[in-house]
Amino acid sequence: MDKRSLGMGLFLLILIFGVGGCCTPKATESLAATLHFQETRMWCWAASGQMVMEYLGTNVAQCTQANNRFGRNDCCNIALCPNPVQNHACVRGGWPEFNRYGFQSIHTTNAALSWEDLKKEISNSCFCGRRPFAFTWRWPGPMGGGHMMVAMGYTTLSLLPLKENFVEIFDPWSPCIGDHRFITYDYYVQSPGHHTHWDDYYKVRR
Fold it and tell me: Is 70 within the bounds of a domain?
């Protein structure tokens, strides 16, 4: 290989792995995901998994996720919306199992994504994640438990001298209804006395 060919090869490698791998998030993003309410009082995790996977091209029903999660075969036969059963072995909390349905994912442990990482994960710009992600709050007190939702957009509002970052979310609560709203980034991270941050499931991909 002559020096000219070697130089061109190095240039292409720099272009591909240097410039090409750089994500520059948009200032505002709102992905065209679909809100799914949770079909029982405990299936926020299944609804969140359904929303993320559906956006990526695979719709896995909440009852199917429950069957697989709990090793059952009757979760699609119980009463769901509009009048879901309240107590049943299928009606339990859990976590999405993206790997079971052909996806890879990463999750945090008791930590939120930084504002910059959140934007990079959601933004539809070149080399950014271009996907929603699931996040979880943990409730304080002896009862414990938590709640999972989906982040699918973000924006920043500047009202001089104030500047506030917001996260657009799909909340599967309440059962058979759900909610689409904006929360501040600080509230996404935590709200003392109301919730702390649990695990985020992100970089969900084939």
Answer: yes
